[in-house]
Amino acid sequence: MATALKTQSKTKSKSQSKAQLKTKALTGKKAAASQSGSAKRGTTKRSSLKGSATKNGTSKAAATARSGRKSSRNGFHPGTYTVPRGHVSIAVPPFWYLHQTNDDIQVESEASETTVIVSAYQRKPGIGPLDARDYLQHFLETAPVRSRLESGGTRRDAGARFRDPEGDNWLVRFLSNGNTLVLATCHSNRPLNSREGKTGTAVLASVKLKAKG
């Protein structure tokens, strides 16, 4: 099934802006990793695919969004978007919107109440392998956690879920291959057991980072 894509609006939706601002505020500056990405702008009538998700690669390869046949446990049949460098991919459900900026990839629900944002960071010279658990811990130290926190994982894949003071749901994942660190967040105004909440959770779970090659 073809992936639904939308031209990025000059005025972002309230949910998307809120998720984006909160993610950037919670992330802060990393001492061991710097955000990476170089954008090559290219807009179609229904899509906004603007280059690479990371600044350390200036690949001129065209971004691809290929239709997937596998269905998730939630029952949706997503397409898959892979960044030009080919190291990060994410599922895009039908009728959800895909945006890419210089800093991140955003997959937003049709109702604009659930947004998944993915950002990549590159290891700085002289720093040891990046551990997903360490960055998750740093993230949670400043996160506005109001509800009971659930977290755990490994050095390659660590995550957490919580509610903020406004009652919104947050799911967070850090992926690492040692050299590249990926932060993926899902922010939703909807209950996580709702259809939209389950789809957002599945999109977050679909984020993949290739092993360093």
Structural description of this entry:
- This protein is α+β, with helices and mostly antiparallel strands.
- The protein has one domain: Mog1/PsbP, alpha/beta/alpha sandwich (Protein Transport Mog1p, Chain A).
- The chain is built from three helices and twelve strands, in the order αβββββββαββββαβ.
- The protein has helices at residues 14-27, 132-142, 195-206, and strands at 33-35, 64-67, 79-82, 88-92, 97-100, 105-108, 114-123, 150-153, 157-163, 169-176, 180-188, 208-209.
- The strands form two sheets. Strands 1, 5, 6, 7, 8, 9, 10 and 11 form an eight-stranded antiparallel beta sheet that branches. Strands 2-3-4-12 form a four-stranded antiparallel beta sheet.
- β10 and β11 form a beta hairpin.
- The radius of gyration is 16 Å and the shape is globular.
Number of helices: 3
The succession of helices and strands, N to C, reads HEEEEEEEHEEEEHE
**Shape designation:** globular
Largest sheet: 8 strands, antiparallel
Q: Uncertain regions: pLDDT < 50 for 5+ in a row?
A: 1-16, 23-31, 37-75
DSSP strand (E) fraction? 25-35%
Q: Helix content range of the residues, please?
A: 10-25%
How far apart are the termini? 31 Å
Return the structural class. alpha+beta
Average pLDDT, rounded to a whole number, is 74
CATH architecture: 3-Layer(aba) Sandwich
The domain tally reads: 1
Assembly level: single chain
